[in-house]
Amino acid sequence: MEQFWEHLQNLTDAQSIISKGGFYLLLVVIFAETGLFFGFFLPGDYLLVLAGLLCATNILDVSIVVLLLSLMGAGILGNYAGYWFGYRTGPMLFKRNESLFFKKRYVAMAEEFYAKYGGMALVLGRFFPIIRTFAPIFAGVVKVNFRKFTIFNIIGSATWVCTLTLAGFFLGKKYPDEIKYYLKYVILGLILITSIPLLIAYLKKAFKTGTTE
Length: 213
Prior knowledge:
Blueprint lengths: L1 H11 L1 H6 L2 H12 L10 H13 L7 H26 L14 H14 L3 H4 L6 H11 L4 H29 L1 H6 L1 H30 L1
């Protein structure tokens, strides 16, 4: 058990995530997870909350305004990259060979989500792992109007970043000592919580497949 916590702390320690590669590493992760098809496994949700916590406790040496604007910018650019990729590959994306970093069912999941919510999928999808990565790619595949895409892209990034980062920031401000002491438990909790939407989507898909057989 002690080795598990040591391994977890090495993976999630502020020095490893933020300080080693720093603030810019955080931006790269958010950019990759919001538009590069191989970025779906990256922990964007909990890193936003963690960034807010670290900013509040002065471990991350940037102001909350700079942090929010930078994260929003990374999220917006990530979606543009995903849109461009989908636009360029088009329907051929569905014929792409599967690999460790690409599964056709992820694109199908984004297609189903987009069919249900339309342009708002680009906003709501920010809060769901995998959908967050593949929704902009699918929007590019179906060639959503670029102006419309841009509006939803900006709203989605701002909503996602502000909600999670400010939640972490205000929590860190209210309980600075407790956060520092229980940081590894907080991080583990965040990992579990942000995995719930992915688990629900997987179970629904499995149940749906099982009932059609």
